[in-house]
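The data are quoted verbatim here:
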Amino acid sequence: MFYRILADITVSAHFLWILFLIFGGLWGRRIKAVKIAHVSGLVFAFFINLLGIYCPLTYLETWLRTMFAPATAYSGSFISHYLERVIYLNLPPYGIFALTVILCAFNVWVYYRRGK
């Protein structure tokens, strides 16, 4: 039971991390430390996708689920595993990479737009 709770906490942290990568630019415009953490996270996400490896949180969650009950573990990407369940979309690795590039471009726009 302990491993299952830790796996669920890991999934929650992973989800919050993804939300931070998506919306952190809005917060990072006002706070320099958040901007540094956000841009660093985007660079990290870009390179792990470019190299074709998974986020360390995916490996941790898979290991914790395997320790709890091997049948509950999954192989592959955290994003693919959970997004497919939500929106029934089969995302190949290049699809996740494309979304990462779009996310990075959006945040470049957020950080460098003028006005307001």
Q: What stands out?
A: The chain has a mean pLDDT of 83.
